[in-house]
Amino acid sequence: MIAAGLVAPGSEARVILYTVLGAAYSAITYSAYRVPVLASIPVALLALNMVRTPDVPTILAGLERERVEDLRRAAERERARIARELQAGAARTVMDAAPDLAREALLRAPLPRRQGP
């Protein structure tokens, strides 16, 4: 019965439903405890309904927000790196002509932040 549920198309909930229905049919058909089995089916269905899988759209929205935030941070780091390189390049070009101006430009350049492990 479990194998039939696993090859059935659809979600995990459908697999569980097929398995429970097959097990209930077998128990009703072949068991000496038909009445207790019949009485337990609504309870089992109620319990299965209460135990739901996580809300997939909510999970996907959270993952999308994380991805957007990661992209924003990466773009910010890249912009800072490019700004440092441009500022250092400009300082090198004026190093001989105006050493004080070049020194000031290099001192104003933001240092890269260290990333954690």
Q: What do these coordinates show?
A:
- The chain is mainly α.
- It contains 5 helices and no strands.
- Helix 2 (12-30) runs antiparallel to helix 3 (34-50) and helix 4 (56-93) packs antiparallel against helix 5 (99-108).
- The protein starts with a helix and ends in a 9-residue tail after the last helix.
- The mean pLDDT is 77.
Overall 3D geometry?
Answer: rod-shaped
Structural class of the secondary structure composition? mainly alpha
CA gyration radius, whole angstroms: 32 Å
Mean of residue pLDDT values: 77
The helix/strand order is: HHHHH
Number of strands: 0
Largest sheet descriptor: none
Q: Report strand %.
A: under 5%
Low-pLDDT runs of 5+ residues are none
Q: Helical stretch count?
A: 5
Separation, N- and C-terminal Cα atoms = 48 Å
Q: In percent, how helical is the residue content?
A: over 70%
Structure summarized in a few sentences:
This protein has helices spanning 2-7, 12-30, 34-50, 56-93, 99-108. The protein is an all-alpha fold.
